[in-house]
Specification:
Distance between the termini of chain A: 43 Å
Mean pLDDT of chain B: 84
Strand content of chain A: under 5%
Structural class of chain A: mainly alpha
Low-confidence stretches of chain B: none
Shape of chain B: globular
Strand content of chain B: 5-15%
CATH superfamily of the largest domain in chain B: Periplasmic binding protein-like II
Distance between the termini of chain B: 74 Å
Mean pLDDT of chain A: 85
Largest interface: A-B, 47 and 45 residues
Number of strands of chain A: 0
Number of strands of chain B: 11
Helix content of chain B: 40-55%
Shape of chain A: globular
Number of helices of chain A: 11
Radius of gyration of chain B: 23 Å
Oligomer: heterodimer
Chain lengths: 285, 379
């Protein structure tokens, strides 16, 4: 263990403080009984009850989670396929262009993505009469467009270090390409796919700008609801909801941490065993 | 590993399809401000007519405008603010002409506020003025008592005179985001024109010269966060709408803050929020039923009592709760009081538009604390 100098420790403390103090403050305020978030009166759990009584809030949360799930899933499918295509050694028409085009939504400001999509939907509607009005579907399309690039990037970076000889070996042994794809490629890059999905999910859950252009009747998402709340004062109910979100995420993260630790150990011992076996086989020969 | 993938995929499929919700057959899509109409009122409407209200919220009029002007918004009932939004959207043909036979309760809105609305050029056959209130000063009475003992706020001098505003500045002062909420008051203070100022570009320079003197005492420019700011103590005085001032007053009482509101003796400005049916509303029949329902005096009074926003149904005034009617600044129900309030008029002529543009630019320069170009505005 390297001894840490005082400067490094203080920078570390400052960094963690910057990350966690706002969250701690948010959680503390969820337990206040005051009407307005950020003013402490005395301890109360009434805002947690208020969250469950507020139909609008629950409905908006469900809409947000639904949108995020659907758009993250679609974004993962498209992003993975795009990553495989762009990493592939085979050259095809417009490959370089595709490589750049996928990253464009990251660079272009969200507000422009949202507005241009709105214009596009209106133009399409005028020509084909579809989509009839904006709603969940248009928001999902907008989010897929914005998040696909992130999935593409995470998966692509994993694929770049992918050992092609594994695939070749499988093909050599008579596996069909489809089998290789499902049995070899996907399991190996699965972690990057999962992290891509989570990234897309988070970004979609978070988005206000694109959604506010593309929502229609009955598809108010949580960020839009919270933002409209500002005018009449944000109540600690929002803090309470955020606290519950944090709690769920914390539990999920802890579970994943312990599970993956266990699995890592298992995988490790498996690997060691097989290696021993391999060495033994070699010696036998 | 492949089993994990199967589990993962099933999980996704479950999440995706579990949450698909069936929409009921009879609906009306309403788009409005957050927290103005209580859910209870929608539930009652559903019980009465079997039509489900789907209520979506927006955070400002610009969002609403973007949706409305983008041809088919899908909404059946919307609540735009009259000046300047509803007026210009109406000219662009965003709202369908209302069939008065389908809204028998439209008789209920006859009164002072509606007269004022018509006088200012509001088209009642397209948009009904349903909510109203005033714009004034909301302030922390305790702070004010400390700074100016035994004095009443009765004019905007405390904000526009550098000597007075400097005393308040350490408690925080918030100015509105848009020029339209502050230039008329400045006009009155400088005794230029009648209540709503003239629309002369040369006047803007005079306003700016005064703003230059007080700019350094202003802490923030924000129209939407007045309630949070006043209660958390970030500012001690803010220019805001009367319904927000009422909310701040109610919430403030619970945390021991005494938030008061005044329209001042020399200046009261009336605002109205309208309700209308967009041209391409998909459920027009239900929308009419909903409009008629909202204008029922009993329901109207209930809306006011829940959220503190005043409805424009004079026969409902006597059903307002006592705490509200006791405050004659927030709730000026007498005819003479309403009559004295001023209402802005939409810009029609090209000169008006030019003025609007110059004023917007001048105000954004003020916000950025750039006064070097004051003289340029003149031409």
């Amino acid at each position: 263990m390297i001894g840490l100098s005082r400067t490094i420790v203080s920078i570390l403390v400052f960094g963690y403080a910057l990350l966690f103090i706002p969250i701690v403050f948010l959680i503390i305020n969820a337990f206040s009984s005051s009407e307005i978030s950020g003013v402490w009166t005395h301890f109360s759990l009434k805002w947690f009850e208020a969250v469950f009584e507020d139909d609008d809030l629950i409905y908006a949360t469900l809409t947000s989670v639904e949108t995020a799930c659907i758009s993250a899933t679609i974004a993962v499918v498209l992003g993975v396929l795009a990553a495989i295509a762009t990493v592939n050694e085979k050259s095809f028409f417009g490959k370089k262009f595709l490589n750049v085009a996928i990253i464009i939504p990251i660079v272009v400001p969200e507000i422009i993505v949202g507005f241009s999509l709105l214009m596009l939907f209106i133009a399409i509607e005028n020509i084909f009469g579809f989509p009839k009005e904006r709603g969940l579907m248009t928001v999902v399309i907008g989010h897929v467009m914005a998040t696909m690039a992130y999935v593409h990037m995470t998966v692509r970076s994993r694929l770049l270090s992918f050992d092609n000889s594994l695939e070749e070996a499988a093909l050599n042994l008579g596996a069909k390409y489809f089998t290789v794809f499902w049995q070899i490629k996907i399991p190996i890059i699965f972690k990057s796919i999962l992290s891509g999905w989570l990234l897309a999910f988070t970004l979609s859950l978070d988005d206000l700008v694109i959604a506010s252009f593309l929502t229609g009747p009955g598809s108010t998402t949580l960020p839009i609801l919270i933002f409209s709340n500002i005018r009449i004062g944000i109540t600690p109910a929002i803090n309470a909801l955020a606290t519950m979100f944090i709690l769920v995420i914390a539990i999920a993260l802890t579970l994943i941490f312990f599970l993956s630790k266990k699995r890592n150990i298992e995988a490790f011992s498996e690997l060691a065993n097989s290696k021993k076996h391999l060495d033994y086989n070699k010696l036998q020969r | 590993m492949s089993r994990n993938i199967v589990i993962f995929c099933t999980f996704l499929a479950m999440l995706t399809f579990l949450t698909f919700r069936k929409s009921p057959r009879e609906i009306v899509n309403v788009y409005g401000w957050y927290g103005i109409i209580d859910r209870e009122i929608f539930d009652e409407f559903e019980k009465k007519t079997g039509i489900k209200v789907i209520y979506d919220v927006y955070d400002n009029n610009d969002t609403l405008e973007a949706k409305l002007l983008a041809t088919n918004s899908g909404y059946d009932v919307v609540f735009p603010s009259f000046i300047p939004y509803a007026a210009r959207q109406c000219d662009m043909g965003a709202y369908s002409r209302l069939d008065e036979n389908l809204i028998p309760n439209i008789e209920n809105i006859k009164g002072c506020v509606t007269d004022k609305y018509k006088e200012a050029g509001g088209k009642i056959e397209h948009l009904i003025p349903i909510f109203w209130g005033t714009v004034g000063l909301a302030y922390d009475a305790d702070v004010f008592e400390k700074v100016f003992p035994q004095k009443k706020i009765d004019s905007y001098d405390i904000l526009f005179e550098p000597e007075k505003i400097s005393l308040l500045s350490k408690y925080g002062i918030s100015f509105p985001e848009e020029y339209i909420d502050i230039f008329p008051q400045m006009g009155v203070f400088l005794s230029i024109g009648n209540g709503l100022g003239t629309r002369q570009i040369s006047d803007i320079v005079k306003y700016m010269k005064q703003f230059k003197k007080i700019r350094k005492y202003i802490k923030k420019f924000s129209s939407n966060t007045a309630i949070n700011d006043l209660i958390s103590g970030e500012v001690c005085i803010a220019i805001c709408a009367s319904d927000n001032a009422w909310r701040a007053h109610v919430a403030g009482m619970k945390v021991g803050k005494n938030i008061k509101y005044t329209t001042t003796k020399d200046f009261g400005i009336l605002w109205t929020d309208c309700v209308g049916i967009p041209e391409k509303a998909p459920h027009k029949k239900n929308a009419y039923k909903f409009l008629n329902y909202l204008l029922d005096p009993k329901i109207a009074a209930k809306i006011t009592n829940c959220s503190g926003i005043l409805v424009n149904v004079p026969s409902a005034f006597k059903m307002f709760k006592k705490e509200l009617t006791d405050d004659d600044q927030i709730c000026p129900l007498e005819k003479e009081k309403i009559f004295r309030l001023m209402i802005g008029t939409p810009s029609v002529t090209p000169e008006d538009r030019n003025y609007e543009r110059a004023a917007t630019r001048a105000w954004s320069k003020t916000r950025m604390n750039e006064f070097s170009h004051v003289e340029d505005i003149e031409e």
